[in-house]
Design brief:
mainly alpha; two-stranded antiparallel ribbon; elongated; disordered C terminus
């Protein structure tokens, strides 16, 4: 039991890393399954289109699915152009802020698509099929060798025979695997550089960031609990009035404006420090706008406040 608890604590303390790793492993397994079971290169003039579709279209689908499932996406778009309200995107400052949030969405949802492309390049089947059908590559390899050489190159993924001269220039599988490793190395280098820059520009210290994530995890947990409790009481009151034909009792609940204020995007303020929009709302005068105040700044290091990618134990 003690060992199980240790494993559970480890999983909770590295929830974000384990989550991304699980997504990457599932994507890699799906790619290998598609490559072995579904993919069959036609070995004709369709090679280029067929291989490119299997290499890129699943990555696009995974990216769009990630955007649909990302909380930040709907925090930005929900109600931004509601009837009777001026579309928020016409305001330059809000547009800039929303662009930064959408950039964070793009980065976080790119894990699965880039994993698919990297694993597919290492496997080489998709690239080999697409490259063998490229008219530019065929012209380069078969210069002065006639149309029969073009057909031989197109049949290469299916085990077709090639002339000795063409074989000397043909290394699609090696090219694909080299590109795959280069892509992985570039992604890891970019992640390291961006993380270092964000941490260097963080307006708060390392331990305060740790505390901040602990606070957000607890606030989220308590919010869901209190919201269920509040909704239960409201539903019980309404149903009681409906079935017993009685007048409803006074019931205090947040207004639409209150919900809109705590749902707006977070901005860090050096003069008045708040850990979330709820924290900012309860510390401000009720009814006063909290969406934008003097001294607000938007730090990429605090982008986790608008999302849900926080570890339950607050580790960074």
């Amino acid at each position: 039991m003690e060992k199980f608890r240790t494993v559970l604590d480890f999983c909770l303390s590295h929830q974000k890393v384990i989550g991304y790793s699980a997504v990457s492993l599932l994507t890699a397994a799906s790619e290998r399954l598609f490559s072995v079971v579904v993919f069959q290169c036609p070995c004709n003039s369709w090679n280029m289109y067929y291989g490119s579709v299997f290499l890129l279209v699943p990555a696009l689908i995974l990216f769009l699915l990630g955007c649909l499932l990302n909380v930040r996406t709907w925090r930005v778009f929900t109600g931004c152009c509601a009837p009777g309200r001026c579309c928020h995107f016409i305001h330059m400052r809000r547009c800039c802020r929303y662009s930064k949030v959408l950039w964070l969405v793009t980065v976080s949802t790119s894990v699965a698509p880039l994993t698919w492309i990297a694993v597919a390049l290492l496997g080489a089947s998709f690239y080999e099929c697409a490259a063998s059908g490229s008219s530019l590559i065929q012209k380069h390899l078969c210069k002065g060798k006639g149309t029969q050489c073009h057909e031989q190159v197109a049949r290469m993924p299916c085990g077709g025979t090639l002339s000795h001269e063409v074989k000397e220039f043909l290394s699609f599988r090696a090219q694909s695997q080299v590109l795959g490793w280069i892509l992985i190395a570039c992604i890891m280098a970019l992640v390291l550089v961006v993380t270092c820059i964000n941490r260097c520009r963080s307006p708060v210290s390392f331990l305060q960031l740790k505390f901040w994530k602990i606070y957000l995890a607890k606030e989220k947990e308590l919010f869901e609990s209190k919201a269920k409790e509040h909704a239960t009481k409201l539903a019980e009151r309404n149903l009681k009035c409906f079935f017993e034909f009685t007048d409803p009792e006074q019931f205090q609940t947040p207004s639409n404006k209150d919900w809109q204020q705590i749902s707006s995007l977070y901005a860090f303020n050096t003069k008045r420090q708040y850990y979330s929009m709820i924290h900012k709302y309860v510390c401000a005068n009720r009814g006063a706008s909290i969406k934008s105040t003097e001294g607000d700044m938007f730090s990429p290091a605090l982008g986790f406040v608008d999302g849900t990618d926080i570890d339950e134990t607050g580790t960074i």
